[in-house]
Amino acid sequence: MDMRFDLAQKAQDDTALVMAGAPSGKGCGGQYCDRCEVRDQAICADLDEQQRGALNRIGRRVSLQAGQTVMWEGDSSTLVANVIEGTLKLSTSTGDGREQIVGVVYASDFIGRPFGARTPHSVTALTDARLCLYPRGAFDGFAREHPVLEHRLLQRTLDDLDRTRAWMLLLGRKNAREKVATLLLDMHNRLPADRGGVIELPLSRQQIADVLGLTIETVSRQIGDLKRMGLIALAGRRGVRIVDADRLEAMAEGE
Amino acid sequence: MDMRFDLAQKAQDDTALVMAGAPSGKGCGGQYCDRCEVRDQAICADLDEQQRGALNRIGRRVSLQAGQTVMWEGDSSTLVANVIEGTLKLSTSTGDGREQIVGVVYASDFIGRPFGARTPHSVTALTDARLCLYPRGAFDGFAREHPVLEHRLLQRTLDDLDRTRAWMLLLGRKNAREKVATLLLDMHNRLPADRGGVIELPLSRQQIADVLGLTIETVSRQIGDLKRMGLIALAGRRGVRIVDADRLEAMAEGE
DNA sequence: CTTATGCATTGACCTCTGTCAAAGCGGGCG
DNA sequence: CGCCCGCTTTGACAGAGGTCAATGCATAAG
């Protein structure tokens, strides 16, 4: 059976569980916000203590396991959230099941579609994750009353749009080697490395393929080539160390 | 010589002309806004008369000829604008000159990068066009003081992001036939048709290729195939009529 | 109306990436 | 510690789309 369909089934059940199981009225809570890991990076950063308290009251914390899907492409938009911890993918699919990952989000990022009727893409946890979840209607109302929040959301959305458009160049005009090199550099810049300089990829080979618009076989071959050329070193299935960043950057640009 | 480079050269000169030649202090002007064709669709729609007057004072109207470039990828972001009339493309390129069109904008759309240091893509007129142009700094300041404007800008940016992500699915996962069919339907939905049902494409074959991540030859072959199959009819270089929308939609989805 | 220019089409060929199938191997479980 | 499952790698092959080159044909200038 297709792994992706498998995950989807599982997640559908789990999501229902999360929704039902969360204690109502228990928001992020002022006490949570005070020690929130992403308080200074997330969109709530510019709110004062009182405003944050008010936002708290409409939200709640939720834990996700790797593989769980929080929102489904095409569903009516009922939830938005801040990512407290973990990595998630945003994805869309064609009618016949081809998938494209349209974004990868990290701690402090915002997910969901405020001010819109439909969720344009699915959101699925790649690692275990924690969210600060808000009902969309209440969030929209709060945002409209707090321009500092909307401003921060606007900045974030503009940044997302820039990054997304840059990725279109990769999808439309780069070859497989350039695509893989670009992704490895991108992850290298965004993920923490251990002492040995090894980063743990949050994506399987199939997911890398889904981000780059390739097949798993092509991704595997390209990574193998880069290793054989001595530009990268592999450590297990998910570990990667950039050995020669300059040459890898040259590859990424097609030089 | 490469057509695209040629255009670029030409536009660089012309842009300078426009900037220097515009009478300073002559804004869109209250009298212009009153008869503005896009007043109710552009981001200024929710401003009251007085606020619109204030925004006017920092902007001015500018005319562009087809082929002129208004903003350059990577330049510092100094301008933003509303499109009054015409069609423009947003594009990025790799170091070695491969181009990807990352967006096509029409009347009432907003262009430029507010709240950011750099322009992430070039903006070039595909047809003759008119803009309502604002210096970025002044626009940013005005926007921060007028949450209704920022809200409208946020909605527009969220919509852009949705559309851009949907396009990523096309770039990463659709084949040439599906890409071309999708584009023709998209244009059919957004452009006015004459009595005969013929739409005038604002894009040359090369530009269609740059939107779809294909070569001009592949685009030409696919359009030829669709014509031979009786799904579309051609009228000159730019004219297209959708003959069988249902079958074309099936093509677009790969069915 | 005619001509010239440049965009568009068509053809031949080749390469890159996808497809299908089999083997390898990392990591969790017993 | 070893086994087994599922992800990953590797191989052989096919086909979609790119490349290079020549021809066709709108369109606008004369």
What features would you describe in this structure?
The structure is a homodimer of 255-residue chains. With 255 residues, chain A is an alpha+beta fold. Chain A has two domains: 3-169, Jelly Rolls, CATH 2.60.120.10; 175-252, Arc Repressor Mutant, subunit A (Orthogonal Bundle), CATH 1.10.10.10. Helix content of chain A is 45%, strand content 21%. Chain A contains nine helices and eleven strands. The first copy, chain A, has helices at residues 3-21, 29-34, 49-58, 136-145, 147-173, 176-190, 205-212, 216-228, 245-252; strands at residues 60-64, 69-71, 79-85, 88-93, 99-105, 110-112, 122-125, 129-135, 198-200, 232-235, 239-242. In chain A, the strands form three sheets. Chain A has a four-stranded antiparallel β-sheet. In chain A, strands 2-7-4-5 form a four-stranded antiparallel β-sheet. A three-stranded antiparallel β-sheet of chain A has the order 9-11-10. In chain A, α6 packs across α8 (216-228). The longest helix of chain A has 27 residues, at 147-173. The model of chain A is unreliable at 1-29 (pLDDT under 50). Chain A binds chain B through residues 90, 92-96, 98-100, 102-103, 113-116, 120-121, 144, 147, 150-151, 153-155, 157-162, 164-169, 171-174, 212-213, 253-255, and chain B through 90, 92-96, 98-100, 102-103, 113-116, 120-121, 144, 147, 150-151, 153-155, 157-162, 164-169, 171-174, 212-213, 253-255. Chain B binds a DNA duplex (30 and 30 nucleotides) through α8.
